[in-house]
Amino acid sequence: MDCGIDAVGFEARGHGGGAGAQEAPATVLNSLMDLTAAGGSLGIPGLYVTGDPGAADEAAKKGSLSLSLGTGWAKSLSFTTGQCPVMKYNRQLMMAILHDRIHIAKAVNAQAISLTDAPRGYAEFDAGAATKYVLDPHGYLSA
C-alpha cells in the first residue's frame, strides 16, 4: 500500500455497520498495519481519546485499544501520532475560503439548524449522523 487515510478513527464501527454495530477504534489501525508495506509508516493524526466513560467494555473506558503491535513490529513499521498542527494551515485555509476556492460547510457536511431543532440535531449527532450541525438561532444563515 502506498498511502492510507484513517477517515473514521476512534468512532470506527465493526463490520456489519448496522445501528447495533459496536465501536471498534482499532479496526482501521490494524487494517492499515496489515496493508502497509514492510518498512512503511503510519501517521495517526487527530484524536484517539484516552478514555470513554460510556464505552461498551472496561478496556475502551480506559482508552485501551486492541492494536496488533506484533504486526507493526514484524513489519518494522514506524508510527507518528498526535493532534494535527492546525495552526500551521490557518492562513492557507483562510485565503482559500476568502477566494472561494473551498467551501468548508460542504466539505464537512455542515447544516444550519434553528435553536428549536437543536435537540434533534444533538440526538442525530450522538447517534452517529455524518452531519455537523451549526446552531442558527436568528435565521441568518438560511436567509
TrEMBL record:
It is an enzyme of class 1 (oxidoreductase). SUPFAM superfamilies: NAD(P)-binding Rossmann-fold domains. Its cofactor is Zn(2+). Keywords: Metal-binding, NAD, Oxidoreductase, Zinc. GO terms for molecular function: formaldehyde dehydrogenase (NAD+) activity; metal ion binding. Its EC number is 1.2.1.46. It comes from the Bacteria. Belongs to the zinc-containing alcohol dehydrogenase family. This is Glutathione-independent formaldehyde dehydrogenase.
